[in-house]
């Protein structure tokens, strides 16, 4: 009869570490960095809130998330999921559906109207945040939790930035966006709409602000240089978003060409399909050069969007768009001298985003690149004292809401350090617990709980959410698939395996400790630890190593 014990038997004769008359190494309990935590641009403690979700304690899971990110319901929908790319569960079956669990927790928080629990004492410092996008709102949120008085100036009619103006309802319903912004307002953050800043130094002085965080995003589309005779209606991505909300008629029952290869271009093309029009996405390079993720392209293709690569706009004339056929040489797209003619009613430029940072050029010592991005130091401060910048305004990084939110949190820490005259020093990260470091002495048959999706033929008929959320049972099951990489979860593997009874239980939640008087350094506990929360280190100098 097969044994039901999944713990490997102790092998003191052939195991790798060996023992002797004296101990040369000793085991120590350590905390390593889970790969999901390490990969999260927002710096979420994913493993921690997953552990609460495992136990069905979603309120505490929510409180853990919002220590780092104020938008769990939003991120559960729009995050590009770098945490899942690195998930060690991929080596067993498939990744944990982290974003789906976060969405469930975020949606529950909205349904239950859970408050954010924190304690803050007024610092009597005032901070101006320019731009109510994901980075600005994140910074405002964290600064408020630190006890600072925060006002947000937004040039537009509504808060949200690209979360509102660059993501369609089928991906992010606006009631979800509004609910999570309202939560920030409850922290006594003041958001002033239709408040465009022209002179940042004047606003800083007039409002008696001690610091300024500029995060106006990248809500300009680089104007493509080509000749056109106005026979085709030409607009840019953000103008399209704004007009389509009020009057979609110009884009209905038309043949529309969208120029660009990022998620913005794909979002627009899918919107066009919902207006009952033919949508085609044209991009100058190959798929590897497209900023959009493969799954975003696949979703667009499934809904009937045509994606054509190696095409660059040459000119527009007589209701025809003339495209030069490109090729890739040494990683760059170059023209071939061959052309393709496409008939279209509308051309939407969604190719390259830029930042409208011209109002900062009058401020001495602030360096601005040609694309509008701003140069900062390691503390995210510009060349002007007390003026910080972040989000899509910074050069050299991929643009996403998750990165922007992370920028806001980091900026808040640097601004707080500046205001309190205690510069924030970023702590060193713990070593990441890769799959090779795990000692999986058990296997589980636990396939991922996938989210239901509307069939493409159904999805294109409305702006209803395409991807559905998990129910409670599914979310809890998915959380329970976590391997707790790098951190002890009290499985008792070490306790049960130790041949010398040298491991002492400290009670639930307190883990264990070693009795080094009994420990022989055999490393069986290390070999049994499935999450690599035990490391073998050299015996300390002058330590008594004789085994009793």
Topology:
Elements (H helix, E strand, L loop, with lengths): L24 E5 L5 H5 L6 H9 L3 H8 L6 H7 L3 H4 L12 H15 L13 E5 L3 H12 L3 E5 L8 H4 L8 H12 L4 E3 L7 H7 L4 E4 L5 E2 L5 E2 L4 E4 H10 L8 E5 L3 H12 L3 E5 L11 H9 L3 E3 L2 E7 L2 E10 L2 E12 L2 E4 L3 E2 L32 E3 L11 H19 L36 H4 L12 H9 L12 H5 L5 E3 L6 E3 L9 H5 L5 E5 L10
Helix pairs in contact: 2-3, 2-16, 3-6, 4-6, 6-16, 7-14
Main traits of this protein?
disordered N terminus; 18 helices; Alpha-Beta Plaits; five-stranded parallel β-sheet; alpha/beta; FAD/NAD(P)-binding domain; single chain; 4 domains; Fumarate Reductase Iron-sulfur Protein, Chain B, domain 2
Can you summarize this structure?
With 548 residues, the protein is an alpha/beta fold. It has helices at 35-39, 46-54, 58-65, 72-78, 82-85, 98-112, 134-145, 162-165, 174-185, 200-206, 237-246, 263-274, 294-302, 401-419, 456-459, 472-480, 493-497, 524-528, and strands at residues 25-29, 126-130, 149-153, 190-192, 211-214, 220-221, 227-228, 233-236, 255-259, 278-282, 306-308, 311-317, 320-329, 332-343, 346-349, 353-354, 387-389, 503-505, 512-514, 534-538.
